[in-house]
Amino acid sequence: MSYRDASNDALLAQQAERESNARTYPRHLPLAIAEAGGVTVTDMDGNEYYDCLAGAGTLALGHNHPAPTEAMTRVLDDERAIHTLDITAPAKERFVDTLLSSLPDEFAENAKVQFCSPAGTDAVEAALKLVKAATGNRSILGFQGAYHGMTAGALSLLGDAETKDVPGVLADVHHLPFPDDYRPPFGVGGDDGHRLASTYVENLLADPKSGITDPAGVILEPVQGEGGANPAPDAWLREIRRITREHDVPLVLDEVQTGLGRTGETYAFEHAGIVPDVLVLSKAIGGGLPLSVVVYDDALDEWGPGAHAGTFRGNQLAMAAGDATIDYVLENDLDAHAAEMGARLRDHLEGVAHLDAVGDVRGRGLMLGVEFVDPDAPWPGAGPHAPDGDLAAAVQAACFERGLIVELGGRESATARFLPPLVVTREQVDDIAAIFVDAVRDAVAADDSLTPEVSP
């Protein structure tokens, strides 16, 4: 086959024949990418799409941005080493300089960095091992609705019981209620809801009869990504930080998807004015290439040499690309730009909130979600209606037909998620929103069980 001239259908058919049944995105986004630039990709048939998946949030600067591509080219042109295990090199030292400069001084001044190999889930595994070695404890406290990766240890943290029901998943993880105004775990949202959620955690840690052994750590996402773009309230995060500090439990923040400007601050924990004990980073910090790190308080540095390793933790091209990307985000205030563009996009998305089939519009910065519901199906727990994954899939397909790539997440995969590159412009935000609103209205109208519109 001549791949240069192949069609979408030809490449997709070959992929289906040769790749694992575990492949996911091609089942819902049936394209083969020929070219990519900025916020758009073009398929083999010449169709152009706005990319609001962007490598699941990896491409902070979009496709083929000159900052990381030129940095990688310099490494190659200068014949630098591109693979060094954990032996240091100039590109690595510059990356660490830039990474630490991006963090609050209070955290950076006592920070150690562990390079992992090569995905966010590897860094999660390292963080679990770190806090267990530092505390001597084994159990971990996670949260309902969480997603931390697909390796065995990370899967044990997952809030989705069906997904993690596989051999080898660890059992010493306890899942706590995550505050959610739309589906509040205690039946009440707002300030009262998050106070109940934090009080629950505090009581559990203080109660010798809770049935939970002393935990090695608490891990959470400041905004649950795969969980449906669900942001943690700032006041709740401050309480969790107070509680974990008072009970001497390390707080691990998974910012694999939220880190580096995505939520409107350089790091999502900065909204709450806290600092973690352990910070897990990947995706955007590699400038589009595989790279993951754990940044942690040096008081936890109790593990020995080789306690966590990985062949590709010495990816110098990724470090050069990541250094350039972090620097570009900081120099150009892309966190503030993400806040502005996220507010603009959310205002547009609120334009479908009055539809009976739209349950919730939520998120933070350029990490947004729209949850679809079945208005005739009550939710057995808190929340007015059951999530409607079928309608969300129909909306995703309608978006794709119109030139927009969005991903699904949340309960029943009923939440359309937006993770566009941070460089998205006002005009592109308006186009993206117009396509989405049109797709939603058509998908709702095509569903005979739904009333197309209701009064706001």
Task: List the SSEs and their pairings.
Blueprint: H1 8-18, H2 25-28, E1 33-37, E2 40-43, E3 48-51, H3 54-57, H4 66-77, H5 90-101, H6 105-108, E4 111-116, H7 120-135, E5 139-143, H8 152-156, E6 173-176, H9 190-206, E7 215-220, E8 223-224, E9 230-231, H10 234-246, E10 251-254, E11 278-281, E12 292-297, H11 316-331, H12 334-349, E13 358-364, E14 367-374, E15 386-387, H13 389-401, E16 404-405, E17 407-409, E18 415-418, H14 426-446
Helix pairs in contact: 4-11, 5-11, 9-10, 12-14, 13-14
GO molecular function, one term: pyridoxal phosphate binding
Keywords: Aminotransferase, Pyridoxal phosphate, Transferase
Protein name: Aspartate aminotransferase family protein
Our estimate of the beta-strand percent is 15-25%
Largest sheet: 7 strands, mixed
Strand order of the largest sheet: 4-12-11-10-7-5-6
Mean pLDDT: 91
Overall SS class? alpha/beta
> Which descriptor suits the 3D outline?
globular
Number of strands: 18
Per CATH, the architecture of the domain at 68-331 is 3-Layer(aba) Sandwich
Distance between the termini: 54 Å
Counted by DSSP, the helix tally is 14
C-alpha Rg (nearest Å): 22 Å
* Assigned CATH superfamily of the domain at 68-331: Type I PLP-dependent aspartate aminotransferase-like (Major domain)
Assigned CATH class of the domain at 68-331: Alpha Beta
CATH level 3 topology of the domain at 68-331: Aspartate Aminotransferase, domain 2
The poorly predicted ranges are 163-169, 452-456
Considering DSSP H and I runs of 4 or more, what fraction of the residues is helical?
25-40%
